[in-house]
Known about the structure:
By secondary structure, the chain is an alpha/beta fold. The chain is built from seven helices and eleven strands. Helix 1 (30-38) links the parallel strand 1 (20-24) and strand 2.
Amino acid sequence: MEGVGRPATDDLGLEGGGGRCAYQGAPGAFSHEACIDLRPWDEAVPYDSFEAAISALKAGDVGCALIPVENTTVGRVEPAASLVEAAGLTVVSEAWRPIRLALMAPAGASLRTVRTAESHPLALRQCPASLSTLGLIPVEAFDTAGAARAVAEAGDVSRAAVAPARAAEVYELSILRNDIQDFEDNRTRFVLLSASTG
């Protein structure tokens, strides 16, 4: 999967939803980052669930979908992996991407003020030791960037989010600590899906 320039052979989505790549999550999520970095020529289109992203591809609303299916720390990414297997779509390519988790909070917050860390359940499972060391209570959210957005909107200095560093830029949060994943070699495998069978 090329990340620089559009390959001459890349004809995904030239009909219907061409030039649009579906991903699950809010802007700033790891899947959004993957779309921007791996498919910079496409418009990255967010969906609230993996099922909605795959359905959009099947309906022709987008030309492709980038879905995480496996993580080196927690194993299969569910329900995404099962949905991909059942979808009957073509896996065009795949890419392993490093996953670096950042702890972020509103301006004025510090490691002394924050009490909770909100994120997607899979992200929280990648940093339990770090959160415990920091004395933070994990709180599940639908998405990493969605958690960052909720924390930003609340403006509560006792609430933090665990998300990609890019989400801090998107939602104007301060990063309290970078690289809080428990394992240095924390990577996720993304697959690029197309509705085309030929």
